[in-house]
Amino acid sequence: MKQIVECVPNFSEGRDPEKIAAIAGAARAVAGVKVIDLTSDADHNRSVLTMVGDSEAIGRGALAVMEAAIARIDLTTHSGQHPRIGAVDVIPFIPIRNATAADCVAIARSVGEEAARRFGVPIYLYEDAATLEERRNLSNIRKGEFEGLGEKMQAPAWKPDFGPDRPHPTAGATVSVARMPLIAYNINLGTADFSVADTIARSIRHLGVGFRYCKAMGVELKDRGIVQVSINMTNFRKTPLHRVFECVKSEAARYGVNVVGSEIVGLTPAEALYQAAEFYLRIENFSPSLVLETKLMEVD
């Protein structure tokens, strides 16, 4: 069975359709790479591209995305709700089929080393690929964002894993990572009061007193006149979507605020949605084998 590695570059452009299309087009032009999703958000000013291929092809695809993004994104004029340190902010590699976490660590390091050499961009490794314990958490690397990166990198503790000891002047730095599937899950609240979203985010995230596998922050969606609890679910099996959703809904009710919707950015494993269906529908003895499409995939 064919090897499949997923790569999900997050790049700091969510408003210019031509730039977004050009960056995605660079990935599509790489033999052996298939782009399966592209999501952009103007408030975050960020896009998330999802592509798949084998180890060799996905490495070439990642470098193609970086080259196209670095040529088009200038962080000195960039603003948005999402924290970032780079034009290509983070570039994760995820094992899907016939690939291991170790395979993805090797890809993350190989791509990071080549990108630093080719583009002059400092590269940090985090999560499974991290070389230092304090770099396992992305928020530690992003602290200070692009604007504070130059000063931060003067400290020996923040010497990059690959590349120059100073930020690229317009592209900042990039974080290369090997990890298991992450779900970018946002919950929208029926209020424009940022403090409500921020307080709830602090209460559910692991760095506060919340869920072990949940990262969260409050975000203003100014075009819609509402706020959002923006969440990264790093292990949906141990911290499922429905548990976090119910907690956010309960906390919002304390302020007289309703949840008006939620969204998934990029793609999600079907298992995470099966968990939610089982919880809300109270389906007894639920199994993915009950799903028609699952059965169809088993048919020769």
Describe the structure.
This protein is of the alpha+beta class. The protein has two domains: 4-178, Formiminotransferase-cyclodeaminase, Chain B, domain 1; 183-290, Alpha-Beta Plaits, CATH 3.30.70. 35% of the residues lie in helices and 24% in strands. The protein is built from nine helices and eleven strands. The protein has helices spanning 17-28, 55-72, 101-119, 138-142, 145-152, 194-204, 241-253, 270-281, 292-297, and strands at 4-7, 10-11, 34-41, 46-53, 88-97, 123-127, 174-178, 183-189, 214-221, 226-233, 259-265. The strands form two sheets. Strands 1, 2, 3, 4, 5, 6 and 7 form a seven-stranded mixed β-sheet that branches. A hairpin with a 4-residue loop joins strand 3 (34-41) and strand 4. Helix 1 (17-28) packs antiparallel against helix 2 (55-72) and helix 6 (194-204) packs across helix 7. The protein is globular. The model has no long low-confidence stretch (mean pLDDT 93).
Distinctive features:
single chain; 300 residues; alpha+beta; Formiminotransferase-cyclodeaminase, Chain B, domain 1; Alpha-Beta Plaits; 9 helices; globular
Topology at a glance:
Layout: E1 4-7, E2 10-11, H1 17-28, E3 34-41, E4 46-53, H2 55-72, E5 88-97, H3 101-119, E6 123-127, H4 138-142, H5 145-152, E7 174-178, E8 183-189, H6 194-204, E9 214-221, E10 226-233, H7 241-253, E11 259-265, H8 270-281, H9 292-297
Parallel strand pairs: 5-7, 6-7
Antiparallel strand pairs: 1-4, 1-5, 2-4, 2-5, 3-4, 8-10, 8-11, 9-10
